[in-house]
Amino acid sequence: MLSYWEKSSFLHYDVIIIGSGVVGLSTAISLKEKQPTLSIAILERGILPTGASTKNAGFACIGSLTEILDDLKSMPQTEVLELVQLRKSGLARLHKRLGDEQMSYRSNGSHELIFEKDIASLHQLDNINEMLFPMLNENAFALANDKIESFGFQGISALIENRLEGEIDSGKTMRALMDKALSLGIQLLTGCFVETFEEENNCVAVFVKHGVLNEVIRFHAKQLVVCTNAFAKQFFPEENIRPGRGQILITKPIDNLKLKGVFHFDEGYYYFREINGRVLFGGGRNIDFNEEETTEFEFNEVILDNLVEKLHAIILPQTPFEIDYAWTGIMAFGDSKFPIIKQVSEHVHAGVRMGGMGVAIGSEVGEVLASKIVAGL
Predict the structure, then answer these.
(1) Mean pLDDT by 10-residue block, N- to C-terminus, for the chain (377 residues)?
(2) Residue numbers of the domain that contains 229
(3) 139, 148, 241, 340: which could form a disulfide with 129 (CB 3.0–4.6 Å)?
(4) Has residue 101 been placed in a domain?
(5) Model pTM score
(6) CA nearest 329: which of 57, 83, 115, 67?
Protein backbone atom coordinates (compact mmCIF):
# COMPACT_ATOMS: atom_id res chain seq x y z
CA MET A 1 0.00 0.00 0.00
CA LEU A 2 1.64 3.22 -1.16
CA SER A 3 1.18 6.69 0.24
CA TYR A 4 0.46 9.83 -1.75
CA TRP A 5 4.07 10.92 -1.17
CA GLU A 6 5.48 7.65 -2.49
CA LYS A 7 3.29 7.73 -5.58
CA SER A 8 4.17 11.33 -6.37
CA SER A 9 7.95 11.18 -5.73
CA PHE A 10 9.24 7.64 -6.37
CA LEU A 11 7.44 6.11 -9.36
CA HIS A 12 8.09 8.39 -12.36
CA TYR A 13 11.47 8.80 -14.13
CA ASP A 14 13.03 9.73 -17.44
CA VAL A 15 14.96 6.45 -17.47
CA ILE A 16 14.52 3.24 -15.49
CA ILE A 17 17.31 0.65 -15.56
CA ILE A 18 16.67 -2.95 -14.50
CA GLY A 19 19.78 -4.43 -12.88
CA SER A 20 22.40 -2.80 -10.65
CA GLY A 21 25.47 -4.69 -11.85
CA VAL A 22 28.44 -3.16 -13.65
CA VAL A 23 26.42 -2.54 -16.83
CA GLY A 24 23.37 -1.06 -15.12
CA LEU A 25 25.38 1.28 -12.91
CA SER A 26 27.71 2.26 -15.76
CA THR A 27 24.75 3.04 -18.03
CA ALA A 28 23.16 5.24 -15.37
CA ILE A 29 26.43 7.10 -14.68
CA SER A 30 27.12 7.64 -18.39
CA LEU A 31 23.57 8.96 -18.85
CA LYS A 32 24.04 11.47 -16.02
CA GLU A 33 27.39 12.56 -17.43
CA LYS A 34 25.73 13.27 -20.77
CA GLN A 35 22.47 14.79 -19.44
CA PRO A 36 22.73 15.73 -15.74
CA THR A 37 19.06 16.74 -15.52
CA LEU A 38 17.74 13.25 -16.29
CA SER A 39 15.84 11.52 -13.50
CA ILE A 40 17.08 7.93 -13.33
CA ALA A 41 16.17 4.94 -11.18
CA ILE A 42 17.89 1.56 -11.02
CA LEU A 43 15.69 -1.36 -9.94
CA GLU A 44 17.54 -4.32 -8.39
CA ARG A 45 15.76 -7.57 -7.55
CA GLY A 46 18.10 -8.43 -4.66
CA ILE A 47 19.60 -6.58 -1.74
CA LEU A 48 22.92 -6.76 -3.63
CA PRO A 49 23.50 -7.11 -7.40
CA THR A 50 22.18 -10.55 -8.21
CA GLY A 51 24.12 -12.00 -11.15
CA ALA A 52 27.91 -11.91 -11.28
CA SER A 53 29.15 -8.35 -10.66
CA THR A 54 29.81 -8.96 -6.95
CA LYS A 55 30.53 -12.68 -7.40
CA ASN A 56 33.32 -12.73 -9.97
CA ALA A 57 37.06 -13.22 -9.46
CA GLY A 58 38.03 -9.59 -10.09
CA PHE A 59 40.17 -10.10 -13.19
CA ALA A 60 40.95 -7.07 -15.36
CA CYS A 61 41.78 -9.05 -18.50
CA ILE A 62 41.91 -8.57 -22.26
CA GLY A 63 42.18 -12.28 -23.10
CA SER A 64 44.69 -15.11 -22.72
CA LEU A 65 46.77 -16.55 -25.55
CA THR A 66 44.83 -19.83 -25.78
CA GLU A 67 41.50 -17.98 -25.55
CA ILE A 68 42.41 -15.69 -28.44
CA LEU A 69 43.66 -18.63 -30.48
CA ASP A 70 40.40 -20.47 -29.82
CA ASP A 71 38.40 -17.39 -30.86
CA LEU A 72 40.32 -17.25 -34.15
CA LYS A 73 39.03 -20.75 -34.97
CA SER A 74 35.43 -19.54 -35.06
CA MET A 75 35.68 -15.77 -35.65
CA PRO A 76 37.31 -13.58 -38.30
CA GLN A 77 40.46 -11.81 -37.12
CA THR A 78 38.69 -8.45 -37.39
CA GLU A 79 36.07 -9.58 -34.87
CA VAL A 80 38.67 -10.99 -32.49
CA LEU A 81 40.47 -7.65 -32.57
CA GLU A 82 37.18 -5.82 -32.03
CA LEU A 83 36.50 -7.96 -28.96
CA VAL A 84 39.95 -7.32 -27.48
CA GLN A 85 39.48 -3.59 -28.16
CA LEU A 86 36.11 -3.67 -26.36
CA ARG A 87 37.77 -5.19 -23.28
CA LYS A 88 40.63 -2.69 -23.42
CA SER A 89 38.30 0.30 -23.81
CA GLY A 90 35.95 -0.92 -21.09
CA LEU A 91 38.75 -1.37 -18.58
CA ALA A 92 40.19 2.04 -19.46
CA ARG A 93 36.80 3.69 -18.91
CA LEU A 94 36.29 1.91 -15.56
CA HIS A 95 39.80 2.87 -14.48
CA LYS A 96 39.31 6.51 -15.46
CA ARG A 97 35.94 6.67 -13.71
CA LEU A 98 37.05 5.21 -10.38
CA GLY A 99 40.87 5.21 -10.17
CA ASP A 100 43.25 2.66 -8.66
CA GLU A 101 42.46 3.26 -5.00
CA GLN A 102 38.70 2.84 -5.15
CA MET A 103 39.06 -0.46 -7.02
CA SER A 104 42.18 -1.66 -5.17
CA TYR A 105 43.60 -2.10 -8.65
CA ARG A 106 46.92 -3.94 -8.86
CA SER A 107 48.89 -4.22 -12.09
CA ASN A 108 50.76 -7.41 -11.27
CA GLY A 109 50.07 -8.83 -14.72
CA SER A 110 48.64 -12.27 -15.42
CA HIS A 111 50.06 -15.69 -16.16
CA GLU A 112 48.62 -18.53 -18.21
CA LEU A 113 49.49 -22.11 -17.34
CA ILE A 114 50.21 -24.19 -20.44
CA PHE A 115 49.87 -27.96 -20.31
CA GLU A 116 51.29 -30.48 -22.76
CA LYS A 117 48.03 -30.63 -24.74
CA ASP A 118 48.29 -26.87 -25.45
CA ILE A 119 52.02 -26.67 -26.11
CA ALA A 120 51.45 -25.98 -29.82
CA SER A 121 49.93 -22.63 -28.86
CA LEU A 122 53.44 -21.37 -28.06
CA HIS A 123 54.28 -21.49 -31.77
CA GLN A 124 51.63 -18.78 -32.30
CA LEU A 125 52.81 -16.46 -29.52
CA ASP A 126 54.79 -14.15 -31.82
CA ASN A 127 52.01 -14.08 -34.40
CA ILE A 128 49.41 -13.04 -31.81
CA ASN A 129 51.73 -10.37 -30.41
CA GLU A 130 52.15 -9.02 -33.94
CA MET A 131 48.38 -9.08 -34.50
CA LEU A 132 47.67 -7.15 -31.28
CA PHE A 133 50.61 -4.74 -31.39
CA PRO A 134 48.89 -1.91 -33.35
CA MET A 135 46.18 -1.86 -30.68
CA LEU A 136 48.30 -2.38 -27.55
CA ASN A 137 51.52 -0.62 -28.63
CA GLU A 138 53.59 -3.37 -27.07
CA ASN A 139 53.85 -7.15 -27.02
CA ALA A 140 51.24 -8.65 -24.72
CA PHE A 141 52.62 -12.17 -24.26
CA ALA A 142 56.03 -13.52 -23.26
CA LEU A 143 57.33 -16.83 -22.00
CA ALA A 144 57.98 -16.89 -18.26
CA ASN A 145 59.07 -20.47 -17.65
CA ASP A 146 61.64 -19.26 -15.12
CA LYS A 147 58.77 -18.44 -12.74
CA ILE A 148 57.21 -21.92 -12.69
CA GLU A 149 59.38 -23.15 -9.83
CA SER A 150 59.04 -19.94 -7.82
CA PHE A 151 55.25 -20.16 -7.98
CA GLY A 152 55.39 -23.84 -7.00
CA PHE A 153 53.25 -25.17 -9.86
CA GLN A 154 53.43 -28.82 -10.92
CA GLY A 155 52.44 -30.64 -14.08
CA ILE A 156 52.64 -27.70 -16.48
CA SER A 157 54.81 -27.42 -19.58
CA ALA A 158 55.13 -23.64 -19.88
CA LEU A 159 54.05 -20.33 -18.38
CA ILE A 160 53.03 -17.26 -20.38
CA GLU A 161 53.11 -13.80 -18.86
CA ASN A 162 50.86 -10.90 -19.88
CA ARG A 163 52.07 -7.66 -18.28
CA LEU A 164 49.03 -5.69 -19.54
CA GLU A 165 46.46 -7.34 -17.25
CA GLY A 166 45.63 -6.70 -13.61
CA GLU A 167 43.21 -7.34 -10.77
CA ILE A 168 40.57 -5.48 -8.82
CA ASP A 169 38.60 -5.91 -5.64
CA SER A 170 35.13 -6.55 -7.06
CA GLY A 171 33.38 -5.61 -3.82
CA LYS A 172 35.14 -2.24 -3.52
CA THR A 173 34.63 -1.58 -7.23
CA MET A 174 30.89 -2.14 -7.02
CA ARG A 175 30.64 -0.03 -3.86
CA ALA A 176 32.49 2.76 -5.66
CA LEU A 177 30.15 2.55 -8.67
CA MET A 178 27.13 2.64 -6.37
CA ASP A 179 28.54 5.63 -4.48
CA LYS A 180 29.23 7.39 -7.78
CA ALA A 181 25.68 6.78 -8.97
CA LEU A 182 24.15 8.00 -5.71
CA SER A 183 26.33 11.12 -5.74
CA LEU A 184 24.88 11.98 -9.16
CA GLY A 185 21.33 11.77 -7.86
CA ILE A 186 20.53 8.35 -9.31
CA GLN A 187 17.92 6.39 -7.33
CA LEU A 188 18.99 2.83 -6.45
CA LEU A 189 16.02 0.78 -5.31
CA THR A 190 16.70 -2.76 -4.09
CA GLY A 191 14.26 -5.60 -3.47
CA CYS A 192 12.45 -4.70 -6.70
CA PHE A 193 11.57 -7.86 -8.60
CA VAL A 194 10.39 -6.72 -12.02
CA GLU A 195 7.69 -9.09 -13.26
CA THR A 196 7.05 -7.47 -16.62
CA PHE A 197 6.79 -4.16 -18.47
CA GLU A 198 4.45 -2.69 -21.08
CA GLU A 199 4.82 0.21 -23.49
CA GLU A 200 2.06 2.77 -23.10
CA ASN A 201 1.81 5.69 -25.53
CA ASN A 202 5.01 7.67 -24.88
CA CYS A 203 6.30 5.74 -21.87
CA VAL A 204 6.91 2.31 -20.37
CA ALA A 205 5.05 0.90 -17.37
CA VAL A 206 7.26 -1.33 -15.21
CA PHE A 207 5.50 -3.73 -12.84
CA VAL A 208 7.39 -4.60 -9.64
CA LYS A 209 6.37 -7.11 -6.98
CA HIS A 210 6.87 -5.55 -3.57
CA GLY A 211 6.50 -6.26 0.13
CA VAL A 212 5.13 -9.07 2.25
CA LEU A 213 1.71 -8.69 0.60
CA ASN A 214 3.27 -9.13 -2.87
CA GLU A 215 1.71 -5.85 -3.92
CA VAL A 216 2.43 -4.94 -7.55
CA ILE A 217 3.75 -1.40 -7.97
CA ARG A 218 3.66 0.36 -11.34
CA PHE A 219 6.67 2.53 -12.22
CA HIS A 220 6.76 4.75 -15.32
CA ALA A 221 9.66 5.89 -17.49
CA LYS A 222 10.20 7.52 -20.86
CA GLN A 223 12.92 4.93 -21.56
CA LEU A 224 13.60 1.50 -20.05
CA VAL A 225 16.98 -0.23 -20.11
CA VAL A 226 17.33 -3.94 -19.31
CA CYS A 227 20.79 -4.78 -17.89
CA THR A 228 20.09 -8.14 -16.26
CA ASN A 229 22.54 -10.23 -18.31
CA ALA A 230 21.48 -13.92 -18.17
CA PHE A 231 18.21 -13.04 -16.44
CA ALA A 232 17.18 -10.95 -19.47
CA LYS A 233 15.76 -14.14 -21.02
CA GLN A 234 12.72 -13.48 -18.82
CA PHE A 235 11.97 -10.35 -20.84
CA PHE A 236 13.40 -11.32 -24.24
CA PRO A 237 12.78 -15.06 -24.72
CA GLU A 238 13.61 -14.78 -28.42
CA GLU A 239 17.16 -13.51 -27.80
CA ASN A 240 20.15 -15.85 -28.05
CA ILE A 241 21.06 -15.81 -24.33
CA ARG A 242 22.26 -18.84 -22.37
CA PRO A 243 23.05 -18.64 -18.64
CA GLY A 244 26.37 -19.98 -17.45
CA ARG A 245 26.88 -20.61 -13.76
CA GLY A 246 30.37 -20.15 -12.31
CA GLN A 247 31.64 -22.00 -9.23
CA ILE A 248 34.22 -20.25 -7.05
CA LEU A 249 35.91 -21.27 -3.82
CA ILE A 250 38.39 -19.54 -1.56
CA THR A 251 40.93 -20.98 0.86
CA LYS A 252 41.65 -19.89 4.37
CA PRO A 253 44.78 -17.68 4.67
CA ILE A 254 47.96 -19.56 3.74
CA ASP A 255 51.32 -18.76 5.33
CA ASN A 256 54.07 -17.69 2.91
CA LEU A 257 51.87 -17.98 -0.16
CA LYS A 258 54.03 -17.74 -3.30
CA LEU A 259 51.37 -16.54 -5.72
CA LYS A 260 51.03 -12.95 -6.88
CA GLY A 261 48.77 -11.64 -9.61
CA VAL A 262 46.08 -13.48 -11.56
CA PHE A 263 46.33 -16.81 -13.36
CA HIS A 264 44.26 -18.81 -15.80
CA PHE A 265 44.42 -21.93 -17.95
CA ASP A 266 42.39 -23.99 -20.43
CA GLU A 267 41.27 -21.03 -22.58
CA GLY A 268 40.24 -19.11 -19.47
CA TYR A 269 37.81 -21.75 -18.21
CA TYR A 270 39.88 -21.97 -15.00
CA TYR A 271 41.12 -18.89 -13.13
CA PHE A 272 42.76 -18.21 -9.78
CA ARG A 273 44.45 -15.45 -7.85
CA GLU A 274 45.87 -14.45 -4.50
CA ILE A 275 43.70 -12.19 -2.35
CA ASN A 276 44.70 -11.22 1.19
CA GLY A 277 46.89 -14.30 1.60
CA ARG A 278 44.21 -16.65 0.26
CA VAL A 279 43.78 -18.43 -3.06
CA LEU A 280 40.54 -17.73 -4.90
CA PHE A 281 39.92 -20.39 -7.55
CA GLY A 282 36.99 -20.70 -9.93
CA GLY A 283 35.83 -22.16 -13.20
CA GLY A 284 35.44 -25.68 -14.54
CA ARG A 285 32.19 -24.92 -16.33
CA ASN A 286 33.60 -26.66 -19.41
CA ILE A 287 33.46 -30.09 -17.76
CA ASP A 288 29.69 -29.88 -17.26
CA PHE A 289 28.23 -27.31 -19.69
CA ASN A 290 24.70 -28.68 -19.63
CA GLU A 291 24.39 -28.67 -15.85
CA GLU A 292 25.83 -25.16 -15.60
CA GLU A 293 23.41 -23.67 -18.12
CA THR A 294 21.14 -22.46 -15.33
CA THR A 295 20.16 -19.39 -13.34
CA GLU A 296 19.95 -21.37 -10.09
CA PHE A 297 22.50 -20.37 -7.44
CA GLU A 298 23.42 -23.90 -6.39
CA PHE A 299 26.68 -25.82 -6.12
CA ASN A 300 27.88 -28.40 -8.61
CA GLU A 301 29.77 -30.86 -6.42
CA VAL A 302 31.50 -32.44 -9.43
CA ILE A 303 33.04 -29.10 -10.37
CA LEU A 304 33.89 -28.14 -6.77
CA ASP A 305 35.67 -31.48 -6.31
CA ASN A 306 37.52 -30.84 -9.58
CA LEU A 307 38.66 -27.41 -8.34
CA VAL A 308 39.95 -28.87 -5.06
CA GLU A 309 41.74 -31.63 -6.97
CA LYS A 310 43.51 -29.10 -9.19
CA LEU A 311 44.48 -27.02 -6.17
CA HIS A 312 46.20 -30.09 -4.70
CA ALA A 313 47.77 -31.35 -7.94
CA ILE A 314 48.75 -28.17 -9.81
CA ILE A 315 48.46 -24.91 -7.90
CA LEU A 316 49.39 -25.77 -4.29
CA PRO A 317 51.01 -29.21 -4.57
CA GLN A 318 53.41 -28.75 -1.67
CA THR A 319 51.25 -26.44 0.43
CA PRO A 320 48.67 -27.48 3.03
CA PHE A 321 45.42 -25.54 2.68
CA GLU A 322 41.81 -25.54 3.83
CA ILE A 323 38.76 -24.41 1.88
CA ASP A 324 37.01 -21.60 3.73
CA TYR A 325 33.81 -21.28 1.69
CA ALA A 326 32.43 -21.21 -1.86
CA TRP A 327 29.82 -19.36 -3.92
CA THR A 328 28.31 -19.23 -7.39
CA GLY A 329 27.60 -16.46 -9.90
CA ILE A 330 25.49 -16.40 -13.05
CA MET A 331 27.00 -15.23 -16.35
CA ALA A 332 25.44 -15.07 -19.81
CA PHE A 333 26.66 -16.47 -23.13
CA GLY A 334 25.40 -16.96 -26.67
CA ASP A 335 26.41 -18.10 -30.12
CA SER A 336 28.39 -14.86 -30.43
CA LYS A 337 30.93 -13.66 -27.87
CA PHE A 338 29.80 -10.08 -28.40
CA PRO A 339 27.28 -8.55 -25.98
CA ILE A 340 23.75 -7.66 -27.06
CA ILE A 341 23.48 -3.86 -27.16
CA LYS A 342 20.32 -2.87 -28.94
CA GLN A 343 17.14 -0.83 -29.00
CA VAL A 344 14.44 -3.46 -28.65
CA SER A 345 11.50 -1.14 -29.30
CA GLU A 346 10.70 2.57 -29.28
CA HIS A 347 11.12 2.91 -25.51
CA VAL A 348 13.08 -0.22 -24.51
CA HIS A 349 16.82 -0.89 -24.73
CA ALA A 350 18.97 -3.86 -23.70
CA GLY A 351 22.60 -4.31 -22.68
CA VAL A 352 22.97 -8.00 -21.83
CA ARG A 353 24.97 -11.20 -22.50
CA MET A 354 28.40 -10.12 -21.28
CA GLY A 355 30.03 -13.47 -22.07
CA GLY A 356 31.77 -13.65 -18.70
CA MET A 357 33.54 -10.36 -19.47
CA GLY A 358 31.39 -7.95 -17.45
CA VAL A 359 34.29 -6.43 -15.50
CA ALA A 360 36.21 -5.73 -18.69
CA ILE A 361 33.44 -4.58 -21.03
CA GLY A 362 30.61 -3.43 -18.75
CA SER A 363 31.63 0.24 -18.58
CA GLU A 364 31.94 0.51 -22.35
CA VAL A 365 28.62 -1.26 -22.89
CA GLY A 366 27.03 1.28 -20.53
CA GLU A 367 28.58 4.15 -22.49
CA VAL A 368 27.25 2.82 -25.80
CA LEU A 369 23.79 2.32 -24.32
CA ALA A 370 23.74 5.82 -22.84
CA SER A 371 24.67 7.35 -26.20
CA LYS A 372 21.84 5.50 -27.93
CA ILE A 373 19.31 6.52 -25.28
CA VAL A 374 20.30 10.20 -25.20
CA ALA A 375 20.08 10.33 -28.97
CA GLY A 376 16.48 9.13 -28.78
CA LEU A 377 15.23 11.33 -25.93
Answers:
(1) 89 97 98 98 92 93 95 96 97 96 93 96 97 96 96 96 94 97 97 94 92 84 97 96 97 93 94 96 96 96 98 96 98 96 96 96 98 89
(2) 4-54+172-239+337-376
(3) 139
(4) no
(5) 0.96
(6) 57
